[in-house]
Amino acid sequence: MTAPRTLFDKLWDAHVITSSGDKDLLWVDRHFVHEGSHHAFGKIAQRGLPVAEPGLTFGVADHYVPTRHRDRPIPDADIARMVRTLSENTARHGITLFGLDDPRQGIVHVVGPEEGLTLPGTLVLCGDSHTSTHGAFGALGFGIGATEVAHVLATQTVWQARPAPMRIRVEGTLGPGVGAKDVALAWISRLGADGARGHAVEYAGSVVRGFSMEARLTLCNLSIEGGARMGMVAPDETTFAYLRGRPYAPGGDAWDAAVVAWSALPGDADAAFARETVLDGAEIAPIVTWGTSPEDALPITATLPDPARETDPARAARIKAALDYMGLSAGRPLDGTPVDRVFIGSCTNARIEDLRAAAAVLAGRKARVPGLVSPGSSLVKAQAEQEGLDTVFREAGLDWVASGCSMCVGMNGDLLAPGERCASTTNRNFRGRQGPGARTHLVSPVMAAAAAVTGTLTDARPLLQGRGT
Amino acid sequence: MSGWTTHEGLAVGLPLEGVDTDQLIPARFMSTPRAQGYGGFLLHDIRRDAGGALRGDFPLNDSRADGASILVARRNFGGGSSREAAAYALLDAGYRAVVAPSFGDIFQGNAVNNGLLPARVTEAEAEALLAALAAGPVAGAVDIGRGTLRVGEVSVPFTLAPGAAEKLVNGWDDIDLTRHHQDRIGAFRDALKRDRPWLWPGASAWRAGA
After folding, report:
1. What is the Cα gyration radius of chain A?
2. Under 8 Å between Cβ of B161 and B108
3. How many inter-chain contacts (A to B, CB under 8 Å) are there?
4. pTM, entire model
5. Is the complex ipTM more than 0.90?
6. From residue A454, how far is each of A287, A379, A408, A457, B29 by CA, in Å?
7. A169 plus A234 within the same structural domain
């Protein structure tokens, strides 16, 4: 009899081709490339190597794509070149591209699941740290650098040291207005931005089991912000129901065979984890980041930290530097902090449920500050328009734009001005992430919508009274 | 990539924690071809004031730090984005080694793949090294074979991620290494395609209504 194994153990073991020293050579089932993959295509071109498995490689234009005036040529020459180079590289190697003009275009971590490309049991790679998102299906998904992207292109394999399995259980139930974003920021603030470094996180517990695929994707997406290169949820009926009938998902008899294989993936009951953390869902409130790391996160009901109360001088200095950068005063309440802008978008929080939740707060109300709503994919955009959500955002005074990474990473020119403060549904509040001198507060979609309505960071829950999300 | 075992050079302290890859190279520089060099983008925004002038109080702007090749920082160096450009910026600016109590996992791999040493030390050792650098850059040395490094008069051991030491020392290129395993990869692929043809999207005869 074999030793009990976790979901992670089963996924990892199934992909090991061979081992050398401390590393395993793993087979890659899905490889996504984007405009930023030009370094890697350049590396294989230098060696004159072909792409080993073009049928398992998919291109997505997202990082640099404009979110406005899609019908016109891209005005910025550098950005136009990045988008064009992806088209050229994918065409040269016979890789399917979800390009700028494709109705399925969107952010890679939204498109992969939406198209049924991300499946339980698969190993999914992309030159993007938020590839952890795909673990929501009970897959191994992680981000890699350009040298590794070139290696995957050339060999369809990757060398990796095996991380240790870690479990984060979220038990009980979440209160109204509290969601996956809040759960993620809650554990990251508790364990730190490098708290799960070297570990593969499995999310479990009644709250996670009750989550939709969209919520699981948000949760797994943010794993890297706690230092975990990968995060995952065991596949179940919710997973299978989401996948059934998706364009690239197995169909017919293959579907039944796949479900049999996928049903064996959840971890054995007595499998051991190297670490475990348990959160009580009932204790999690809507969370806002106040500083320049995702670990700098507090409930909206809290007051800002005070460096004068810190005993550790290095920590006090870091808090002071973060507050200075953010233009905030120690000890003041977070609620009521004025914002200049809101952004609803990104691979973290721009799926249809996220847009519905934000629209529930905004319906019939006006935004006091300008804001941008960029759906996670062009198909999410079309669905939202069918449901009339675009009208809600527009009537509130927010800009409804096309899909891409947009203001989460700012590569396409969607940026904040220096000193501007933004309530943002994105994943990184790093200094300058949304533009030099920009001040980012990470929040959930309902919290971003509440910030739009009040012009301040504020608790979304009163604004949700009597409205479903 | 050529391998290396020992290095002697100037060490500089960057007493900050959480220097993420967005700090190491802001996103807007990443459409630049590598051939143009990424050294000028290193820590571009945090070493400047709001007006764009170099800050006098930023350690790397000290003229005595010119030519520095060993960087010592605090915990969680290189977290965040997977951009390998963060390693390029350090290398193109002349750095061979970064020393910190912890690194972002993806950055650490990218660094090793480019011959940049991500040396892990304890929090206390990092503080001792930073103390030795408090008055300005001093001579340092790194020995991957022995797993030790020295900054001024302070010598400490360091650790590396699994497999990193042999890769750095030999200057191995993974693509060449992996091609030695081509038979095994082919056999793995063939078995997978036989047992689970539906893993090849669109290529499977099983697909309904495609």
Report:
1. 21
2. yes
3. 192
4. 0.96
5. yes
6. 17, 30, 22, 8, 35
7. yes
